[in-house]
Design a protein that fits this description.
By secondary structure, this protein is mainly alpha-helical. It is built from 12 helices and 10 strands. The model has no long low-confidence stretch (mean pLDDT about 95).
Length: about 375
């Protein structure tokens, strides 16, 4: 393994472990000192790769213990263990999907069948809550404004990122059912996942990448989150995957891996209070190491091994330069404004960097 990557792996491992507590995985240790579902669950993929399963099952336990009666997983849990279900004014979709993905990954890495059995009823409720978010009954999920991880961008309708996670959650829930010998349910959810994949390709595929989201019209900005997930989860076939990666290269979105979108969203899609500050770019043209890490794994899966290693070194170089795994970059530097400063010990990216290194090295 290249020395740049080896050094960065040690930093990322340390930053990830800083976020471990007796209850799970914190989003960070400074500005983000709380438990946030998407951060904890993405970070757990790195913990599982390291064999540090305790942090993973504690995170899953924490969120399932505070699951709402209708199946919704909290968006945030404070350090005083108080759950919050709304993100600004809406209930985000990705928390439930990522819980199922994290649980199946934990089982596949640890072999802890008893943990699956313990949580099956609540996991099934989480899955059913997700399915009910298909308000127009066309197989895909709809969300309202502020419902995605990019809560500072005004989107509503069928969002690519959220539906990619939904597809993966359907597949992973089917795997969970299979592991528990619930084969009728397994078949049911495999069929559902296949239908969702077909629907996504029919509706979202623009010609050389996937639409960002579909509301009253189709929005054709190029969002790296959903497009990379589509490659990673096998929603995109080999040719589609190559087109997506070529789009990333064409616009140099992997210069600081990985820029969130191209082109930038129009000003009226960003809350006005962010205009004068660098925080305007938080979810609009900024770069996120966790996206770069997912793209490393996607490239590796495609067989683009050289490109995967190059991008991994690029992420590693950013980690080594700043001595920690930062949350978000703008113009090559950690975001730093009066309103918003990049989290320096960011569990989400730390975990996914570890996972990317393990996937590339095969260890």
């Amino acid at each position: 393994m290249h020395v740049t990557v080896t050094n960065a792996l040690e930093v990322a491992h340390n930053d990830l472990r800083r976020c471990f507590t007796d209850y799970g995985i914190l989003a960070g240790r400074k500005r983000l000192g709380f438990y946030r579902a998407r951060d904890s669950f993405f970070a757990s993929l790195g913990a599982n790769a390291l064999g540090e399963y305790t942090a993973s099952w504690k995170s899953i336990d924490l969120f399932l213990d505070r699951q709402r009666k209708d199946g919704l997983i909290p968006h945030i849990i404070t350090q005083k263990l108080k759950p919050h279900f709304h993100q600004i004014v809406t209930e985000p979709l990705d928390c439930n999907a990522l819980l199922i993905i994290a649980l199946n990954d934990y089982y596949e890495k640890s072999g802890d069948l008893q943990f699956l059995e313990k949580h099956f009823e609540k996991t099934e409720k989480a899955m059913e809550w997700l399915r009910r978010q298909d308000s127009d009954k066309d197989l895909l999920l709809e969300e309202t404004f502020f419902g995605s991880w990019r809560e500072t961008v005004l989107k509503n309708g069928k969002v690519l990122y959220s539906n990619c996670l939904y597809y993966k959650a359907l597949e992973d829930f089917a795997s969970i059912c299979g592991a528990l010998d619930k084969h009728e349910l397994e078949s049911q959810f495999r069929r559902r996942a296949s239908a969702v994949k077909e629907r996504m390709n029919n509706l979202f595929w623009q010609g050389n990448y996937y639409y960002d989201w579909i509301g009253t019209v189709k929005h054709d900005s190029f969002a790296t989150d959903g497009n990379v997930l589509a490659v990673l989860f096998g929603i995109a076939d080999n040719l589609q995957s190559q087109m997506i990666e070529n789009k990333i290269k064409q616009h140099q979105l992997n210069k600081v891996p990985l820029q969130s979108n191209y082109p930038m969203y129009p000003f009226w899609r960003i809350p006005p209070g962010l205009f004068p500050l660098d925080a305007y770019h938080y979810h609009n043209g900024s770069s996120w190491l966790w996206l770069g890490c997912l793209n490393v794994i996607a490239l590796h899966k495609m067989g683009w091994k050289k490109e995967a290693k190059q991008e991994l070194k690029s992420v590693a170089a950013m980690i080594n330069k700043h001595g920690s795994v930062h949350e978000v970059f703008f113009e090559g530097k950690p975001l730093n404004s009066l309103l918003l400063k990049s989290e320096p010990f960011f569990a989400w990216s730390s975990g996914l960097f570890v996972r990317a290194v393990k996937e590339i090295s095969g260890k």
